[in-house]
Write a structure and sequence with these properties.
By secondary structure, the chain is an alpha/beta fold. It folds into 2 domains: 85 residues, Translation factors (Elongation Factor Tu (Ef-tu), domain 3); 123 residues, Rossmann fold, CATH 3.40.50.80. The strands form 3 sheets. A 6-stranded parallel sheet has the order 10-9-8-7-11-12, with helices on both faces. A 3-stranded antiparallel sheet has the order 1-2-5, covered by helices on one side. Strands 4-3-6 form a 3-stranded antiparallel sheet, with no helix packed on it. The protein is built from 5 helices and 12 strands. Strand 8, helix 3 and strand 9 form a beta-alpha-beta unit. The radius of gyration is 17 Å and the shape is globular.
Length: 235
């Protein structure tokens, strides 16, 4: 393990270095299973581009115990972390040459960043619409990074949305999928990628299908908590 760096309220960047220093083969948008010392394995999205020497994960602490809490409070440089994967179906379809819609709720932004940065580095020229949904201002992260990317690529638009701001704000507010619905009446030719809490993903999928996007063009990996009986997914 290389480092743990705070990103926002209760959210940190965990950067890993494979012991053999060989690149970890994955597709942007996928996730991996991490097992921290003394903790059960948990799934977290890969936030970097394939081929890099390190692996980035965005981990949000939920509760006072468990793998995500351990990563925030007790993980140190040099600690061993067991890595398995990659997993997930919400990876970038690089053969698609039409518009892209990406919706990330909370740390669901991590796989969306992996897709956006990889696609733009590969020379994608079609419109790329990225929506990042957070609860409140202290939860927001990577805004400068994404707006700098937006300034360099005229086909990229980045929108942050707050669902429950405690104070007055100039940002978009409400549920992130409703902001998407306000901005786009037609999703013809789109591919959509979604990651975040199941309730957000399900609402967004329903909205997209209702507006004519084929289910086969929607790629989503909902995040489940450790207490969810359906699956153990990343926080």
């Amino acid at each position: 393990m290389l480092e743990v760096t705070p990103l926002a309220r209760a959210t940190s960047l965990v950067r890993l270095m494979p012991l053999d220093e060989a690149p970890f083969d994955f597709r942007p948008g996928q996730y991996a299973s991490l097992a921290f010392p003394g903790q059960p394995p948990r799934d977290y999205s890969l936030a970097g581009m394939p081929g890099e020497s390190h692996l980035d994960f965005h981990i949000r602490q939920v509760g006072e115990t468990g793998p995500s809490a351990y990563a925030q409070a007790a993980l140190h440089a040099g600690d061993p972390v067991r890595l398995e994967g990659p997993f997930g179906q919400a990876y970038w379809r690089e053969n698609h040459d039409g518009p892209m819609l990406l919706i990330g709720g909370g740390t669901g932004l991590a796989p969306m960043i992996a897709i956006v940065e990889t696609a733009l580095a590969a020379g994608v020229k079609a419109p790329v619409h990225l929506y990042a949904g957070f609860q409140d201002e202290p939860d927001v992260y990577y805004e400068d990074r994404l707006h700098a990317l937006e300034a360099r690529h005229g086909n990229l638009s980045v929108t942050y949305v707050l669902s429950a701001p405690e104070e007055a704000t100039d940002r978009r507010t409400g549920f992130v999928h409703l902001a998407v619905a306000e901005d786009h009446a037609d999703f013809a030719g789109f591919k959509a990628y979604l990651a975040g809490a199941p309730v957000m993903v399900e609402a967004a999928v329903s909205m997209l299908v209702a507006r004519g996007l084929k289910p086969a063009d929607i790629h989503a990996d909902p995040f489940y908590g450790a207490s969810d009986p359906a699956a153990v997914r990343r926080a």
